[in-house]
């Protein structure tokens, strides 16, 4: 048996052919494949505006940064505003809050779903709270009905990090359909890949325009790459203290970035998107096979749980070794590695334990982070991606069973 990684990409000649076509076009920045992907992805998720970027992390940065735009008036995020987020998270769900000089308010997660609960969010709300920024952990949808009630009650922005959750649904609607703005990642570990890549999606035209401004150097112009004078008045604007008629293509309304992707990446994404329904079905099947197996060993593990309204497209199969188990997480994952089975921690575990965050004072913790610590110490996940075959699953179950038998006797 070759090494079975926790994540991986699945592709065929179609992706290669598309990338070659993009190369032959000679238009190597964002181009026709990017437009095709944005249109098809918009149709798939039912969201009007899609902006492709170079990574899911950049997507998160743009999603929050866009909400700092002055066009939102009193609702615009400003330095010192609080944004509720989870301590048990991938860092780039949290970093944009810090990078925009807002205050992250860290809350815990539920030990079954690995998502923050409505009650945890409610207790974290203060007079300074302006937004919620949370991820659907491992593809498992957040308790969206309750979150949206809080969003409405307190007039909050909701940034929905769907980077692990493409294909997941809640109450029959795709994740990303609930937040003010949402993000996706197309890194090779995710449901579809462009190698690197991501997307910011929204139904709000003002957010969309702000996202594009921050994405494209901060410029005020909204022309697509390679196009000029879409507004029909390129040399008729007067903004800031610039002279009237200054080229709109080079007027900057935001302190922005350049985080666009290339058409090579988009070309690969177009081919991957065609395979997405098959990939979703395979991930769900692999997860179910593991769940049935580990249900027999529930005395040793805390198994995944999910909201009754949720239909997850799983990113991985999460296990938390119980404190009274006759083995530790570390012993088990080392054994798996020795037997060519890859595993991963749940990202940062408790983010506040990491060197980058230890000395920071610009955050608040609401409640305890008990479950985040438990997941950090005892949790790990294994892969369910479409490259894991029935043969792999049979082998993986045998390895787990042998390890359990060795320690249970």
TrEMBL record:
InterPro entries: DegT/StrS_aminotransferase, PyrdxlP-dep_Trfase, PyrdxlP-dep_Trfase_major, PyrdxlP-dep_Trfase_small. Gene3D superfamilies: Aspartate Aminotransferase, domain 1, Type I PLP-dependent aspartate aminotransferase-like (Major domain). Its cofactor is pyridoxal 5'-phosphate. The keyword Transferase applies. Keywords: Aminotransferase, Pyridoxal phosphate, Transferase. GO terms for biological process: polysaccharide biosynthetic process. It comes from the Bacteria. NCBIfam families: PRK15407.1. This is DegT/DnrJ/EryC1/StrS aminotransferase.
